[in-house]
Amino acid sequence: MTWWRVEPLRAKPSDGAVPSVPHSFILSLPPLPLARGGRVRAHRAAAWWWSRAGDLPENPQRAVSTVLLVHALTGSAQAGGPEGWWEPLIGPGRVLDPEKVRIVCFNNLGSFYGSSAPGAPGFPRGATVTTVDIARAILQGLDALGIERVHLAAGGSLGGMIVLTLAALAPRRFARLLPIATTATTSAWVAGWNHIARCLLRADAGYPRHAARGLEVARQLAMLTYRAEPGLAQKQTARTIGAYLEHHGRKLHGRFTAECYEAQLDAMDHHDLAQPLPGGRGSALRRIKAPALVVDVETDQLFTPAQSDALACVLRANGNRVARATLRSPHGHDAFLLEWRQLARVVRRALKLPPS
Predict the structure, then answer these.
(1) Catalytic residue among 133, 300, 331, 334
(2) How far apart are CA 24 and CA 5, in angstroms?
(3) Where are the beta strands (DSSP E) in 157-303?
(4) Cα–Cα distance, 119 to 354 (Å, whole number)
(5) Phi, psi of 319 (to 5 degrees)
(6) Which one, of 105, 6, 102, 108, lies nearest residue 56 by Cα?
(7) 2-186+271-351 CATH
């Protein structure tokens, strides 16, 4: 295993104590065969870690419980700290306190922030990425870090799909699950929006390497599906919505690529745990053993409360312990990145689920 260390964020010690600090780093992992053909060579994964002082990625302490966070479509491994996508939930005194648990997150395979992805050396040209591939890459990362057991795996949207896939691939490795605003099988509704986004990318004259406007408009389309009308109306009007969407389109163009965006859309579109895992038999969902807190958003138009109910029903039928919760929000799907007080409550509840 090879390491590339990124300088950790610095924190000031209190009462003379040695502070815990987040660490970002790159892992060199074994080659990864992809479920739909191709092989990732020169395989690497970007990772983020925050734990108590002395519990380091190169020397993890066995006694520390691990919380694995999995990011959504255009997220990164940096879950906490400045610019972290779950920053309000992570840190000293917060629900995910690095003095009490080890928090780990990997950048998805095929994404833009340091992991192997389209256009990078060793990534097969034209390959299709699936949630199974992303989950297998995460399992390789956990192996490289010597993490044999995960206290809680949590993620929203695509991240929730990957959490469920991880638990199907390695049933005994995960003690608890927190899938939020997600589903066991991608619906035609979601795949339809993704198809339009993909068409926008490919219609750009600069596709695939320089699909600037295509990526911006695809993001604008996505932003409308991530939000619900009541929440959008709180801050936008018919006169301001265009500028709002253009702003978010430019932001994604500045930090992502069309090829990586398409790879994550592919992973979402090919997510179907009602089917067997590659080389397996029977529904992949039946392999999941861990207790789960299944969380929906009441105004989610992409992954509806009914889909969360269906997921919970199947898991219960398999003999899993399953709890349910709903985020009450006018903001739609993106509530899992906005409703911090409610999210803190559900994370706290998930941490206390009776283990498998």
Answers:
(1) 300
(2) 7
(3) 177-180, 292-297
(4) 43
(5) 100, 5
(6) 102
(7) 3.40.50.1820
Asked, as a colleague might, if the bond just before 171 is cis with ω within 30 of 0, I would say: no
Query: How far is residue 76's CA from residue 83's CA, in Å, rounded to a whole number?
Result: 10
Diameter of the chain by CA atoms?
59
CB 308 within 8 A of CB 324: yes
Report the CATH number of the 189-268 domain: 1.10.1740.110
3-state secondary structure of 262: helix
From CA 154, how far away is CA 145, in angstroms rounded?
A: 19
Distance CA 57, CA 104 (A): 10
Locate the domains of the chain by residue range.
Answer: 2-186+271-351, 189-268
- Is 300 marked active-site? yes
* Distance separating the N- and C-terminal Cα atoms of the chain: 31
User: Which is nearest to 159 in space by CA: 140, 134, 136, 142?
Assistant: 134
Structure tokens at 347: 């994370």
Q: Mean pLDDT for each consecutive 10-residue tract of the chain (356 residues)?
A: 45 52 96 98 98 95 96 98 96 97 98 96 96 98 97 98 98 98 98 98 94 97 96 95 97 95 98 96 96 98 97 97 98 98 98 90
Q: Which residue among the candidates 20, 151, 333, 356 is catalytic per the annotation?
A: 333
Is the separation of the CB atoms in 268 and 122 below 8 Å? no
The whole-number pLDDT of residue 19 equals 64
| Bridge partner residues of 26 (DSSP) | 4, 46
CA proximity to 294, closest of 319, 315, 321, 323: 323
Asked whether the whole model's pTM tops 0.90, one would answer yes
Looking at 157, 283, 329, 356, which residue is catalytic? 157
| 118 within 8 A of 89, measured Cβ to Cβ | no
150 and 68 Cβ atoms separated by less than 8 Å: yes
Query: Is 333 among the residues known to form the active site?
Result: yes
